[in-house]
Design a protein that fits this description.
Number of domains: 1
Radius of gyration: 15 Å
Distance between the termini: 37 Å
Helix content: 25-40%
Strand content: 15-25%
Number of helices: 3
CATH superfamily: HIT-like
Order of helices and strands: HEEEHEEEEH
Length: 150
């Protein structure tokens, strides 16, 4: 499979275009379709790359800039305690991070209770909360976009 197809498949799987919160020249921050913790996201390179070593210096600079936006926005909106960035790429062979905000206490968002089932250890990525509520992603996108800290 060529790189264009791999990137397209990745973007479809994670609904990157549909769930984009913010994008710069090199990276896109989107809401993760599965929510193991409140506000979990995907941070993906805008062009296809298989290895982190394929990322250019300019793209690395843009990575630092978008991480600041993610962390400032998420702190303001959900007051996370620590942010985990997981680069797994075992199934999805494209440079990306799973952005998992961590919370020691329950959170309330959209009149729903959210827990960090892995706290204080490794995130429980299999615990996808409130996925029976189709409006969750719309609500998350709206509040994050409205409160974006650039």
């Amino acid at each position: 499979m060529d790189s264009n197809h791999m990137l397209c498949d990745f973007k479809l799987k994670f609904k990157v275009d549909e769930f984009t919160v913010f994008k710069n020249d090199s990276w896109t921050w989107s809401i993760r379709p599965a929510q193991p913790t409140l506000g979990s996201g995907i941070l993906s390179l805008n062009r296809y790359a298989l290895h982190l070593s394929d990322v250019s210096l300019d793209e690395m600079k843009d990575l630092g800039k978008i991480i600041q936006i993610i962390e400032r926005t998420m702190k303001q909106v959900f007051d996370y305690e620590i942010m985990n960035y997981l680069m797994l790429m075992m199934v999805d062979h494209h440079v990306h991070y799973h952005v998992i905000p961590r919370y020691s206490k329950k959170k309330i968002f959209a009149n729903l209770e959210w827990e960090d089932n892995g706290w204080p250890a490794i995130p429980a990525l299999g615990k996808n909360q409130h996925m029976d509520k189709p409006e969750i992603h719309k609500n998350l996108l709206q509040i994050l976009k409205e409160n974006l800290v650039l």
